[in-house]
Each structure stands twice: as C-alpha cells, then as structure tokens.
Design brief:
The complex is a heterodimer. Chain A is an alpha+beta fold. Chain A has 8 helices and 7 strands. Chain A has a 5-stranded mixed sheet with strand order 2-1-5-3-4, with helices on one face. A two-stranded antiparallel sheet of chain A has the order 6-7. The longest helix of chain A has 14 residues. The termini of chain A are far apart. Chain B has a single domain, classed as Up-down Bundle (3 helical TM bundles of succinate and fumarate reductases). The N and C termini of chain B lie far apart (about 75 Å). The N terminus of chain B is likely disordered. Chain B contains 4 helices and no strands. The chains are: A alpha+beta, B mainly alpha. Chains A and B meet through strand 1, strand 2, helix 7 and helix 8 of A and helix 1 and helix 3 of B.
Chain lengths: ~250, ~140
C-alpha cells in the first residue's frame, strides 16, 4: 500500500542566492597566459557545482571548457579543485558551499584548456600496474567461486572510478610526476589481494620501484579527496606491508 | 573566437599558479614533519662541526661553546627541542599508521594526541630551559 499524506506538508520553496564562481581559465590557442575569471550565477541549495558550471557555459560564456559525462558521480570525469580541495563537481551540493567558489583544474597533470587536464600520465601509471586478472593453468570449467571473506579483502578498492582526485591531491605526485600515485596503487591492491589472481608478485615488484609505494608520505590527502570514500592510505599501507612481509 | 564577456574584477590575476591545496591534518603534519626534520638536520650539521673542534683543541672548542651561552641561542635550543620532539612523536605516529591495522583510521586522533604530549612537555620544558636566560636578562627575582 502506498503511503498517502493526510495533509499536504508545507515545504518551503528553495531560495536561490547569487554565487561568485571564480574559475582558472587557460586557452593555449589564444594566449599562454592564465586568467582568473569570476562569474556570478544564481544557485539553489539543491544545485551541484556542476549545475553552476553548465549554467555559466550555457548562459554566460560558451568558451568555458570542462569535462563531464554521467554527471552522477559514477564516471569520474569532472574531478576538479573546488575551494582548494579535489572534488567531483557533480557531487558537491551548493547547500554545503559558501557564496564564493574558486574552481581550478586538478593539480599535477598538464592543463590542456580551462578545467581539462591531460589524463594520459595518470592512465599510464594505471596501466603499468596491470589492472586485470592474471591467472595461470587451466581456466575453471565452472564459475570461479570465492568466499565472502576473500571478496571482502579487496572490496574497498573495487570502488575506484579513476577520476584522479586522489592522485592529483598528493603532494608527492605534484613534485614528482613519475610517482605511480594513489589511484594506480589502489587498482593494484584490488588485484593483489584478490584470491583468484596470481599476478600479485609481479605487481608488488612493480610497486617496489623507487617511484612506487615507498614514495607515499601518508599525508591522507588522497583518502580525504576520494569521492568514493576509499581508504586509500590504508590500501597503500597494506601494499607496503605485503612487500615487507611477502604476505598477501 | 570571442573572449569572455564577463568583466574580470581587479585583483583576480593574483596567484596564477593556483591556490594552496587545502589539505587537512595529515598534510600539515607532513609539512611540519619536513620542516622540523630539516631544522634538526641543520642543527646536527653545526653540532658535528663544533664537537669535532675538540679534536682541533679543547680550548677552541670551549671558545665556540662559550659563544652559545646567550639568550638568543637559548631560544634556538628551545626551538630545537620542540622540533626534535615533534619529529620524534610524529615519527611514531607514522610508524603506527604504517604498521598498526587501525592506524590509518585513527591518524587524526593520533596527531592531536602527539600535539597534546608536545604541549605538555614543551610548556614546562621551555620554562625551565629559559629560566636561566631570564635571570641573566632581567635579574634573579
């Protein structure tokens, strides 16, 4: 049975307010100079930062460039630095934000235009840890079963959407772009601790590199930036321990 | 291509390289760890040099050590104790983060715990360390 409200509940209509959105603009086709441009937009508490960007692009400045695909926190394409921290623009509600926003591209990757960065170095590190199931011998004839405990072992790191919010929040990555970065380690963790996978040794060897897990300085910026709430620093620490004690 | 029509208010051209990343306790404890580490290193550098003077001659060692006996160096000593103490305590916190299973989840609480220990040690420590200089500067009360 569907619940029916006996009396209409008085719901206050959400009020819009004017928000100043300051955006770091860069277009190498016009000038090598970086500019900060401030836009004023009406924002409802139910708006997300992404709505504001879309509104600016639609109504005020069509040249504003940013990435977004699903707009629901699943695809991970709209990671950007909002008021100093890495966030997905589609997951930040305006009711939680002040009336002034500062939006910049994520740090440590080459900016191509406005809020769009070249993700290639990020994906290169991701590919380097072999983020796929590695097995040997005969493949099972039936479904490959795994106990709940074995599945839980790497559950947290399966949530990654490769938005790069973690990697580009890492002070080590900013100064040394050759560091694998948190996201690559998270995705290595996902397979290293998978009981069906046999490539753990191989991946651990890759991450034992001087640009591997040992560069982690446990600043926890990645853990705080992750829009999926993955305990990234913990995952990195587990990979470090697996390397130290050779126990997966 | 058209340029943006929105007027750019004065002063928005500052900090072209981007703003400071607003990391939390974890990031700032790392910054403090670096700074205290470098400070301690420079102390050790000077310390190894002045101690090595004993090999030159005990007299020149005494001369150099005598130049340290002033309130300014006393303040630097207090700073050194503070830096070493923070570096040591935060080092233990990092060990806990890396080796204790609950470490990563309790990193923030552990930071505030070591800051509390630091204050508890430094307040009386600095008082007694500076007592002599204070008496020299302002006369024993």
């Amino acid at each position: 049975m569907t619940a029916v409200a006996e009396r209409p509940v008085a719901v206050e209509a959400p009020k819009a307010r004017t928000v100043e959105v300051k955006i770091r603009r860069y277009n190498p086709e016009i000038s090598d100079e970086v500019r900060w441009v401030t836009y004023r937009v009406e924002a409802y508490p139910t708006d997300r930062v992404l709505n504001l960007l879309t509104k600016i692009k639609d109504e005020q400045d069509g040249t504003l460039t940013f990435r977004r695909s699903c707009a629901h926190g699943v695809c991970g394409s709209d990671a950007m630095r909002i008021n100093g921290v890495n966030r997905l623009a589609c997951k930040v509600l305006m009711k939680d934000m002040p009336a002034k926003l500062t939006i910049e591209p994520i740090k440590g990757l080459p900016v191509e235009k406005d809020l769009v960065v070249d993700m290639e170095p990020f994906f290169e590190a991701y590919r380097a840890v072999k983020p796929f199931l590695i097995t040997g011998g005969n493949p099972p004839t039936k479904e490959w079963l795994q106990s709940q405990a074995d599945r839980d072992r790497y559950d947290d790191t399966t949530k990654c959407i490769l938005c790069a919010a973690c990697t580009t929040s890492c002070p080590v990555f900013w100064t040394d772009g050759s560091y694998f970065g948190p996201a690559a380690i998270v995705n290595a963790h996902r397979f290293i601790f998978d009981s069906r996978d046999q490539g753990a040794e191989e991946r651990l060897e890759i991450l034992n590199d001087r640009e591997g897990v040992w560069r982690c300085r446990t600043t926890f910026n990645c853990t705080e930036a992750c829009p999926r709430g993955i305990e990234i620093t913990k995952a990195i620490k587990e990979v470090k321990q697996a390397l130290l004690f050779r126990r997966v | 291509m058209s340029t943006p029509t929105t007027a750019r208010p004065a002063g928005t051209r500052t900090r072209l390289g981007g703003t400071l990343y607003r990391g939390r306790e974890g990031m700032w404890s790392w910054v403090a760890h670096r700074i205290t580490g470098v400070l301690t290193f420079f102390f050790l550098f000077a310390h190894v040099l002045d101690t090595a003077l004993v090999r030159v001659s005990p007299e020149s060692y005494d001369t150099v050590i005598d130049t340290y006996k002033n309130p300014f160096v006393n303040l630097m000593e207090i700073g050194l104790v503070g830096a070493v103490l923070f570096h040591a305590l935060n080092g233990l916190r990092i060990v806990a983060v890396d080796f204790w299973s609950r470490g990563p989840r309790l990193q923030r609480q552990m930071l505030w715990a070591i800051v509390a220990v630091w204050v508890v040690v430094m307040v009386p420590g600095a008082f007694f360390m500076f007592k002599h200089s204070f008496e020299v500067l302002f006369g024993a009360g």
